[in-house]
Design a protein that fits this description.
The chain has about 290 residues and is an alpha+beta fold. It has helices at about 55-75, 90-115, 120-165; strands spanning about 5-10, 10-25, 30-35, 45, 50-55, 170, 175-180, 190, 195-210, 225-230, 235-250, 255-260, 275-280, 285-290. It contains 3 helices and 14 strands.
Length: about 290
């Protein structure tokens, strides 16, 4: 019988468990009464899907109040939408400037009259005092306009916070996956930071494998992995090594390796125990004879 030399794929057999690619513990960012829970456990959700809705009555009132305060300051400053702030165009500043211009004109007219001895020195001094008062008033109105604009910036920040609070009454999925848990029901009162749901991404899945110390040199990123699980005897699932730990675990004297397994049909579940055959990077030659 002829003897043939062929390359044979060699595999390292290791064990591990399946984990979700990502898991988000979704919490409420505002307090209130739950009024809607449209997603049940086990439901597939896309990123942004509404999970829980909280009553927006209080936050909507706060937003309306903040909007009103900001609009009041804008009206006082005479701001036009889309135009930058210019304190010289604030109504009170413009009025003070007009009064200053008038006082300066009167003072200049009185100066020529006092030189001609038409008016008394006391009347001229009175006009000087009025001019100085008008100048101080103009400067004061400019300062007040600047202060009002700073107040407007604070009011706008409160509007942004109030608007975010209204948006936060709709608790949405942060990622595409499956709703694993819903921890509240309609009528429950939740506080800020209270966990309301759990969303897990199971496509792909992560496979955490444990490689003994003596086989560490045989594992590389990019290697192909064949998985088997007890739930589906006789079937194999593909995966690819994506991460190799830089250090051994001291308690096990083993290396942690992570592979990524596609799971579009969601047949594989997080928590499954898996046996993995890690394909070696180079096929080794061997002499073969017919059986």
């Amino acid at each position: 019988a002829p003897v043939e030399s062929r390359s044979i794929d060699r595999y390292l057999r290791v064990t591990g468990s399946l984990k979700a690619d990502a898991q988000a513990e979704v919490s409420a960012e505002t307090a209130g009464r739950v009024i809607e829970t449209p997603v049940e456990r086990g439901t597939r959700v896309a990123q942004g899907t509404l999970l829980v809705r909280i009553s927006p009555s209080e936050t909507a009132a706060q937003l309306q109040e903040a909007d009103s305060n900001a609009a009041q300051i804008e009206a006082k400053l005479g701001l036009v939408a889309g135009q930058p702030f210019d304190r010289t165009k604030v109504p009170d500043v413009m009025n003070a400037k007009a009064s200053l211009d008038l006082a300066e004109a009167e003072f200049n007219r009185m100066r020529s009259l006092v030189d001609q001895k038409v008016i008394s020195q006391s009347e001229f001094d009175q006009r000087r005092t009025q001019l100085e008062a008008a100048r101080q008033k103009y400067q004061s109105e400019q300062n007040l306009a600047d202060q009002a604009y700073r107040s407007l910036e604070g009011a706008r920040a409160r509007v942004a916070l109030a608007r975010k609070a209204v948006a936060d009454t709709s608790v949405r999925a942060p990622l595409t996956g499956i709703g694993a848990e819903r921890l509240v029901s309609v009528g429950d009162y939740v506080t800020r930071g209270a966990r309301v749901a759990t969303v897990v991404r199971v496509d792909p899945l992560r496979v955490e494998l444990t490689v003994p110390e003596q086989h560490v040199s045989l594992v590389r990123v990019g290697q192909q992995v064949r998985l088997t699980v007890d739930a589906y005897p006789g079937q194999e699932f593909a995966a690819t090594v994506k991460f190799v730990s830089p250090a051994l675990r001291s308690d096990q004297r083993a290396l942690t390796v992570e592979a990524i397994a596609p799971n579009a049909d969601a047949r594989l579940k997080p928590g499954f125990f898996a046996t993995a055959l890690v394909r070696q990077p180079d096929a080794a030659p061997a002499l073969l004879v017919p059986a």
